[in-house]
């Protein structure tokens, strides 16, 4: 089962109360998410089967996401290069998805 929730930036406690055998917290555009929401999301990781998956570009050095992406942090940081995406490889994908992915410029 899955559901979406985005509490107000000013009410991070709204994340509390989610309990399951495994919780996966997805944070998209993670560079724009304030630290208070990261802290609130981390309270949902109550067992070893729970995780946070943060997606984004750490291009704002003042963001919390940029801080957690720095070397030496105790996080898994898989890096995916743009040339590994289907618009640069021969991977088959539905034609309606192709224009949504990063592509060659010019």
Characteristic key phrases:
globular; 2 strands; 106 residues; little secondary structure; 2 helices; two-stranded parallel sheet
Write the layout of secondary structure elements.
Elements (H helix, E strand, L loop, with lengths): L23 E5 L6 H8 L8 E5 L8 H6 L37
Parallel strand pairs: 1-2
Fraction in helix? 10-25%
Strand order of the largest sheet: 1-2
Radius of gyration: 17 Å
Q: Looking at the structure, what is the overall shape?
A: globular
Q: What about the largest sheet? A: 2 strands, parallel
Give a written overview of the molecule.
- It contains two helices and two strands; from the N terminus they run E-H-E-H.
- It is mostly loops.
- The chain has a domain at 12-80.
- The protein has a two-stranded parallel ribbon with strand order 1-2.
- The termini are far apart.
Q: Brief description of this entry?
A:
By secondary structure, the protein is low in regular secondary structure. Helices cover 13% and strands 9% of the residues.
